[in-house]
Every structure is written in C-alpha cells, then in structure tokens.
C-alpha cells in the first residue's frame, strides 16, 4: 500500500524509556522503512506535558533516553530525521489554526481520548489533553507526512488528522496531504491482562540486561487453564507464545504443537522466549553502549535533525499562511 513518494512521520511522547510494546507497535517498522522513505521521527515532549505538566523533570531525562532507545533499535540518523517537538514553534502555530475548525465534541468522542481520560480517573479534562489529536494532526501535516506507523490506539487520532487536513484543504487551498496509518502489532504485557505498558508495570524495556529479561519472563503469566506441567496448553491465548511469535526468528510450529500436547513445560517455554528476546536486544545493547559513551554526538544528532525538520516546517507554514490569506508582507 506504500508508494515511493510517501513521507513518514512517527514518534513517541517522551515520558520514559521504551519497551518491547513500542518496538512491536511501530519502532520495528520504522527501522525498516527509514531506508525506503523520507522519515521524520518526533520526540513529542510537548505532548508528554498533556499528562506530565507537573513533572517537567521526567521530560528532561526522557528526551535523551528515548533518543538512545531509537538509536539502539537501529534508527539511522543519516536516514531518518530525529527532531524535538518543542523546538519547532511552527507546530504550535499550525495546531492553533487547526483548532479554529475542530469541534470540542469531535474530540470528546474520539475513542482513544475517552479511554485515556477514563484511565486517568475520568476527571475534568485539560484543554491540552483534549486537544492532543489536533496537535498530533499538526505534527503530521507540518512534515506533509502521508504514512504514520503506529499502534492500534492511534487509529482514531489518524482518522481525526485526516478529517482535519481535509477540512483545511476545503476551507483554504489543498496544500496538505491526508495521512494513513501503517498499523503495527499489539504486544501483551507480562501480567497477561492488558497491553504492555509503562504505567501498568508489566513491561520489558529495550534497555533490559539479559538477566532482567530472563527473570521477568520466568514470572510472566501463561495460559491460566494450564496448571500441571503435562496439561495440554492453549498457545493461542498465552502471552509467552505471543512473545515466541513476535521475537523468534525461526518456525514456531514446534512450540505450538508441543505446548498443545503438554510436551513442553511453561518454564522451558519461557526460557526459549527469553532467549529469543535477548537475541533481539543484544545488538541493541551494543549500539546503546556505543552511543551512550558519546552523548555529545547524540545531542548533535538531535540538533541537526531539529534544524532539518524546522526547515521543512517553515516551508509548509509559508504555504499554509498563503492558503489562509494571512501571509501579509
Ligand atoms: P503509559 O503507560 O504512560 O500509557 P505506554 O507504555 O502505554 O505508556 P504510550 O506512550 O502510551 O506507552 O505509547 C506510545 C505508543 O506506542 C502508543 O500510541 C502505541 O501506538 C504504542 N504502544 C505502546 N504500548 C504498546 C504495546 N504494548 N503494543 C503495541 N504498541 C504499543
Ligand atoms: Mg499508553
């Protein structure tokens, strides 16, 4: 479905380090797509404030932490443009223009906004939190991005971004492309109950040591119906089998069969899954180690990426202002 002219925008809120769920949701596909398409990756520190405005200390460390996660995962700064949201004021300007014609009701009814508001206690919503999809539409539009690799919770946001861009083009002039989502997988957490997530304490982080991976995986929940070692298992509902599917390089039909017949115990199965995760993380550990030893270079990558993204943002905004008739002189 991708076309050679696609431009990619993707990224993460900088609220802490990344885990395997982020990898499966979109980071994995970014490392592949960066070689084929113009790719922008946003460190969304302004959007981090929608939930962390009272913890600015988290943002300060997270920007570099997430940048290291990207570089460790194989994002190549010569291929992808890594940039910091707060350092591109044109994004805030575009979000402001969009906000004039986005209704509060359409934001309130956005299923992901609703869900996340409920998770946060359903209290009165902050203006910035409610406006998150508008700000995200501006991130995408400012890069003229057409493709957004993201997890399934982002579907409503990308749909809303499409509508916002369409409306802008109808109202003024067709200068902004409509983006599509490139949907990644969804990884279950170690508790087996919900998706892997920082705040649920059920995550395996990309910077885990081999020992941490093994220790955490050994404690992971498995098929609840399987009590004794030789009981037949149900791999299709077992989170550990899900890790085999996502992380093992070879054919998993043997594990599926052995588990279903009760021929392999959960502990052995978890050991194999831990090995597969460690095979993925080992090259990441090496790259992380190398980049962490020269954080000055990491800062340079961010400064240079932000400079490049800002050039694009200025070009887009000049077209946007022209289309709106507010470029006066
Ligand atoms: P929090 O617990 O603070 O909500 P989180 O760990 O769920 O944090 P987010 O910042 O909410 O992480 O997620 C960023 C994006 O990464 C999400 O929009 C989603 O697309 C993707 N993502 C996060 N967790 C997973 C997961 N377990 N599986 C697939 N994608 C995920
Ligand atoms: Mg989340």
UniProtKB/TrEMBL annotation:
Key words, A-Z: Aminoacyl-tRNA synthetase, ATP-binding, Ligase, Nucleotide-binding, Protein biosynthesis
EC identifiers of the protein:
6.1.1.2
Pfam families from the UniProt entry: tRNA-synt_1b
Q: Where on the tree of life does the source sit, at the highest rank? A: Bacteria
Is Phosphoprotein there in the keyword field? no
Q: Is Nucleotide-binding one of the keywords UniProt gives this record? A: yes
Record-linked InterPro entries: aa-tRNA-synth_Ic, Rossmann-like_a/b/a_fold, Trp-tRNA-ligase, Trp-tRNA_synthetase
* Molecular-function annotations in GO: tryptophan-tRNA ligase activity
Matching CDD domains = TrpRS_core
| Similarity comment text for this entry | Belongs to the class-I aminoacyl-tRNA synthetase family.
What NCBIfam families is this protein classified in?
A: trpS (TIGR00233)
Please state what the protein is called. Answer: Tryptophan--tRNA ligase
């Amino acid at each position: 479905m991708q076309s050679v002219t696609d431009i990619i925008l993707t990224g993460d809120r900088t609220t802490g380090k990344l885990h395997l769920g982020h990898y499966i949701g979109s980071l994995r596909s970014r490392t592949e797509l960066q070689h084929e398409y113009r790719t922008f990756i946003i460190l969304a520190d302004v959007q981090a404030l929608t939930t962390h405005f009272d913890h600015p200390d988290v943002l300060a460390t997270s920007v570099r932490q997430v940048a290291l996660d990207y570089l460790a995962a194989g994002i190549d700064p010569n291929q992808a443009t890594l940039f910091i949201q707060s350092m591109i004021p044109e994004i805030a300007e575009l979000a402001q223009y969009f906000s004039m014609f986005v209704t509060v009701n359409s934001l309130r009814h956005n299923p992901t906004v609703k869900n996340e508001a409920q998770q946060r206690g359903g209290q009165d919503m902050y203006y910035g939190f409610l406006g998150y999809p508008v700000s995200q539409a501006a991130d995408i539009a400012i890069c003229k991005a057409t493709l957004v690799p993201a997890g399934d919770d982002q579907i409503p946001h990308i749909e809303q971004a499409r509508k916002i861009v369409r409306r802008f083009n109808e109202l003024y002039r067709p200068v902004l492309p409509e983006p599509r989502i490139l949907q990644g997988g969804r990884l279950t957490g170690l508790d087996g109950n919900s998706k892997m997530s920082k705040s649920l304490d059920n995550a395996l982080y990309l910077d885990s040591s081999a020992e941490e991976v093994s220790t955490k995986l050994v404690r992971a929940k498995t098929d609840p119906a399987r009590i004794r070692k030789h009981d037949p298992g149900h791999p299709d509902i077992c989170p550990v089998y899900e890790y085999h599917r996502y992380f093992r390089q070879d054919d998993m039909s043997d594990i599926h069969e052995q588990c279903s017949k009760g021929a392999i115990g959960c502990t052995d199965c978890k050991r194999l899954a831990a090995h597969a995760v460690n095979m993925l993380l080992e090259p990441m550990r090496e790259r992380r180690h190398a980049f962490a030893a020269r954080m000055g270079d990491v800062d340079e990558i961010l400064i240079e990426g932000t400079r490049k993204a800002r050039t694009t943002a200025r070009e887009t905004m000049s077209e946007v202002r022209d289309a709106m008739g507010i470029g006066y002189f």
